[in-house]
UniProtKB/TrEMBL annotation:
Residues 127-186 form a coiled coil. GO terms for molecular function: phosphorelay sensor kinase activity. This is histidine kinase. Residues 8-125 form the Response regulatory domain. It catalyses: ATP + protein L-histidine = ADP + protein N-phospho-L-histidine. PROSITE patterns: HIS_KIN, RESPONSE_REGULATORY. PANTHER family: HYBRID SIGNAL TRANSDUCTION HISTIDINE KINASE C (PTHR43547:SF2), TWO-COMPONENT HISTIDINE KINASE (PTHR43547).
Length: 416
């Protein structure tokens, strides 16, 4: 039998032997039973306890059970107490209706059937326990709500700082472009410039990545606040919304970690997971690509270990993806898509990026990896991305980067 230890229940009867009988019948439930010998005493006790249930005798001198129940119902502090009338003689329908009008939720007829009594008491004690838990959760919600508001303000401030950083990087990138024009024969400067441009793209992608989560955070906070104000909040709804908010915060934090990893220079070659590089890169750019109407996906990406510079490899993949996206946008391709595949052949890893933008014209196919060569309008491209990618893969990592046309578009191939 479940224990309801210390849950307060008020038993009211003018006859002491009836109180003793009720107390004995309910002993196994381990309740905190409070006795009252009259209606007036019951009202006094009600002011000092939050009762889970009132077992109220109907026929008492001075103030009967109906009057007592009516007075309990009028008091805002006690009106929520569930009342079960206990009676021996008032079985007529009019008496039953009178009891319900006075605020009763049920009747028990004497002689009392012990199991029926305990069953009814258990129901109301369980409801009491749930109500107290909901009150506790509501207080916890209020605290969490304030914490979430502060977190939301902090995230909004960080987003503004990120936008400012992006603007600063754009200005710095423009200045470095002038230096590259003057010193185009120096590969290192061109590589650095390409990296700065990639960082700008990454920041733009992060801005896209954060916009939707910030909107969702705002909606979740408003939803919790509204449900709390309407007293409709349930523990399940609270935990579901808190879990969702924490999931969003972890996702946004991971985005910053990924950006920091991307911008960190590789000091030496190491073994890294090609599949992880693909997944993290697609995660960072996915939102901005979808905003441009481009679907990018990874198909048949095997778990392949690559020896080289992971951040530079990721930068090459990003450059190729950005070029594919720009080609799809410039040609207004319907059903624009990019597919990334990764697998191993013998001792080498192979990664392909395939689009459906219509392919590369034959007359420029041999020039796409040349420094400063671009088909984009003035100011929309540096012509360094693919050149830098070629240097990274072939000079720095001892691999091969190539491109050829396929039926619907172009396919870049990285072998390391």
């Amino acid at each position: 039998m479940p224990s309801f230890q210390n849950i307060p229940v008020l038993i009211v009867d003018d006859r002491p032997e009836n109180l003793v009988s009720l107390q004995e019948l309910l002993r196994d439930l381990e309740l905190d039973l409070v006795q009252a010998h009259s209606g007036n005493e019951a009202l006094r006790q009600a002011l000092h306890h939050d009762f889970a249930l009132v077992l109220l005798d109907v026929q008492m001198p001075e103030m009967d059970g109906f009057e007592t129940a009516e007075l309990l119902r009028r008091n805002p502090k006690t009106r929520h107490f569930p009342i079960i009338f206990v009676t021996a003689g008032l079985r007529e329908e009019r008496h039953l209706f009178k009891g319900y009008e006075a605020g009763a939720v049920d009747y028990l007829m004497k002689p009392i059937e012990p199991e029926i009594l305990r069953s009814k008491v258990r129901v109301f004690c369980e409801l009491y326990r749930q109500r107290r838990e909901l009150e506790r959760v509501s207080l916890e919600l209020e605290r969490k709500h304030e914490e979430l508001k502060l977190k939301h303000e902090e995230l909004a401030q960080q987003n503004r700082k990120l936008q400012d950083t992006y603007q600063e990087l754009e200005e710095e990138t423009a200045q470095r472009l002038l230096a590259v024009e003057e010193l185009r024969h120096k590969d290192q400067i061109m590589l650095h410039q390409g990296r700065m441009a990639a960082m700008g793209e990454m920041l733009n992608n992060i801005a896209h990545q954060w916009r939707q989560p910030l909107n969702v955070l705002g909606l979740k906070i408003q939803e919790l606040g509204l449900s709390y104000d309407l007293e409709e909040l349930t523990p399940e709804q609270l935990h579901r919304n808190i879990n969702k908010v924490m999931e969003i915060l972890r996702h946004m934090s991971q985005t910053i970690d990924d950006f920091q990893n991307f911008t960190a220079p590789d000091k030496e070659k190491c073994r890294f997971s090609g599949k992880e590089v693909v997944e993290k890169t697609l995660s960072l750019i996915g939102e901005s690509f979808r905003a441009k109407g481009v679907v990018v996906s990874a198909e048949s990406c095997d778990e392949v270990t690559i020896f080289g510079y992971p951040n530079e490899y990721r930068q090459v993949l990003l450059n190729i993806l950005m070029n594919a996206k720009d080609a799809l946008a410039e040609r207004h391709t319907e059903g624009a898509r990019i597919v990334v595949r990764l697998w191993r052949e013998g001792e080498r890893s192979l990664l392909t990026v395939t689009d459906n933008a219509g392919g590369i014209a034959d007359e420029i196919m041999d020039r796409v990896f040349d420094a400063y060569f671009t088909t984009k309008d003035l100011g929309k491209g540096t012509g360094l991305g693919l050149f830098m990618s070629k240097v990274i893969i072939e000079k720095n990592m001892g691999g091969r980067l190539s491109v050829h046309n396929v039926p619907e578009g172009a396919e870049f191939r990285i072998e390391v």
